[in-house]
Design goal:
twelve-stranded antiparallel sheet; single chain; 4 helices; alpha+beta; two-stranded antiparallel ribbon
């Protein structure tokens, strides 16, 4: 029931703009989810380059549209199943969430920031983790094509990802470039430990892809929730550089 409700929340948005005029021609012919993902891997670097990927470290600033930077972030990934997203604000300290060989962990200072404008650190970690994936069967039991829609005036394929753990996701791939241009996730919030849980959708938009060590990563990520937007501006992305084990430890 929980997964069905989450998927319904996400699919409502997926289907609502398919009738709008787009700047690019509507794709013709049949295509499968597997073919879309193969083209995505090829467009972002190629299968051999992805197989050689061992680490990613990315750094930048975050803020709000039309405002200056509010803080800094770091993201680290090490194959096959370790990652961490760190958010730092001078007035609140640092908050980080991630996985150590697949086991979730979190660290935070006394003045922790769990989220901004309804976008949580957990959502931002998942946004980045999606950018490191090329072998999709490691985390997902099923991936299927569920629709065709418009993203910023261009046609995009919508794929539903059903993970082994957690809620379904929707990811959107540009029909011409096959870059991922949006990702929809369900954020679940419980205000009190034993209180009612409620959920809302967070839409994440990826743009300005550039090459980093043979793999394309976006240079801007904008996450939008019902409470507002949060923008990550990525200043540096490096691949296959040493990452200290301490980055993935529970403190």
């Amino acid at each position: 029931m929980r997964r069905a409700l989450t998927l319904a929340i996400l699919l409502i948005f997926c289907c609502r703009i398919t009738s709008l005029a787009q700047k690019t021609p509507r794709p013709k012919g049949k295509i499968s989810a597997a073919e879309i993902l193969d083209k995505h891997v090829a467009a972002t670097g190629g299968l051999e380059t992805w197989r050689a990927l061992q680490t990613v470290d990315a750094h930048g600033t975050f803020g709000f549209p039309a405002f200056h930077s509010s803080g800094d972030f770091d993201f680290y990934y090490r194959a096959p199943a370790s990652d961490v997203f760190k958010l730092f604000m001078a007035s609140h300290g640092q908050t980080s969430v991630g996985h150590n060989e697949g086991t979730p962990f979190s660290n935070h200072d006394a003045g922790r920031v769990g989220g901004i404008n309804g976008v949580t650190v957990n959502i931002l970690e998942e946004n980045w983790l999606a950018l490191t994936e090329s072998e999709f069967d490691l985390r997902y039991t099923r991936i299927e094509l569920v629709g065709l829609t418009g993203i910023d005036g261009k046609w995009a394929y919508a794929l539903q990802f059903t993970p082994k753990v957690g809620d379904p996701q929707l990811r959107y791939y540009d029909c011409q470039s096959f870059l991922m241009v949006r990702m929809d996730l369900a954020q679940r919030i419980r205000m009190q430990k034993d209180g009612l849980e409620f959920a809302y959708k967070v839409e994440t938009y990826y743009s300005d892809y550039r090459d980093s060590g043979g793999i394309k990563f976006p240079r801007q990520i904008r996450a939008a929730s019902p409470d507002g937007d949060m923008v990550l501006n990525i200043h540096d992305v490096r691949t296959n550089q040493p990452v200290n084990d301490s980055a993935f430890r529970q403190k």
